[in-house]
Structure prediction request, 421 residues.
Amino acid sequence: MIRFDTITKKYPGTNRPALDAISVEVLRGEFVFLVGASGSGKSTCLRLVLKEDRPTSGSIHVLGQDLRSISNRKVPYFRRNMGVVFQDFRLLPNKSVFDNVAFSLQVIGKSRGFIQEAVPDTLEMVGLAEKAQRLPHELSGGEQQRVAIARAIVNKPQILLADEPTGNLDPTTSAGIMALLERINAGGTTVIMATHEAGIVDQMQRRVIELVGGRIVRDERQGGYATAAIPTTTAGTGRRSAPSAPSGTSGIARPAAAPAPASAFAPAADVPASEVLPVEHPPLTFPAVPVRASVPVAVPVEAPAAVPVAVPVEEPTAVPVEEPAAASFSAAESPAELLPRDDGSLREANAEADAQAEAEAETDAVDGAPTTDLSRAMTRPALPITHHDVPEQLTLAEKLGLRAPGEKPDQTGEQNVGPTR
Ligand SMILES: Nc1ncnc2c1ncn2[C@@H]1O[C@H](COP(=O)(O)OP(=O)(O)OP(=O)(O)O)[C@@H](O)[C@H]1O
Prediction:
């Protein structure tokens, strides 16, 4: 589903690579924690998966596609297969909960009828059916994050990327969010979550990929947070972390086929069990999450100072019901927040990818990607393809990956937010 082949990412003006020849594969339906100290490369990984940036060397395949083959104009369609959740929620402050979730469907041209059905269903799933008309500032942090998750999954993405989704939440609220992410994963969505939170990682016992200074030092199925750099006894269990061999350049780290562990998190108190994803999985029976002392990650490297890479803007969501995998992206309205950190490489990447794409037959490679059970039941809409370069002025929806550059505007009243540079 996602494969990194010897990926190195070096940002301009830096001496050390943010990612240093990493190879790893994530399979369909996995729940993967990406852990590591600040600056270890977690957000960079997520950005590369989203094709927000390109690697300096190596190749990335997502949903069966080599990302280099996706032309700039096809990136929005590619991203509709993914949902993204951020630490800081990135809700539209002047829109209601309903409208925040609906926004991502409106900009990809969903019908009013579709939206009227999909949004309430999704809000019910995240336990916010009663608060659909509230504004974000009238919600708690946990509720705001659930709105952001609803927005990320309303289009039923195949992949959900979560960058520190519990970073701003207290432990109890975080447990509710984790329970929700577990349910989403149980519905077939592949989840990759970057986090520093030892308690959550230890509790979940899912696959853990640990980065230190841009290298994978551990790839452990059902791991905990304890760092491979200094193996530590996990509080309460007496279990010691068992670091596997670093994958580094020695080949692709592939997960062993193993059943996902049972849910570690009870559903959020205010989310009835009946309001979860319509999938067959055992009921969540775990007790409230015991919050353990964090095990600090020792980073015995001269990692550069952390740069909080707010995986720039594109907040996806995904395709609801009869649609093919499609994520929609939504985010804050502030233009400043919408501007990806642009080091120029993305533009180069796009130019390169465009050139490549022009040389190839005009096929929508995303359509050729393997589908999940979810997407199989859906039909892909006819997507308009434009044949011109990316305009300097990108609209909000274009920046968010919701609509291809140049595609006909929609009814959402979005504003132009200027060039990305
Ligand atoms: N646009 C950029 N330009 C230059 N350096 C960058 C850029 N983005 C990230 N970096 C550097 O790349 C390295 C990895 O950063 P990244 O944000 O991926 O780490 P992280 O593990 O996600 O950190 P955190 O947990 O603090 O979010 C860091 O050294 C960071 O300073």
Observations:
- The CA atoms of residues 32 and 192 lie 5 Å apart.
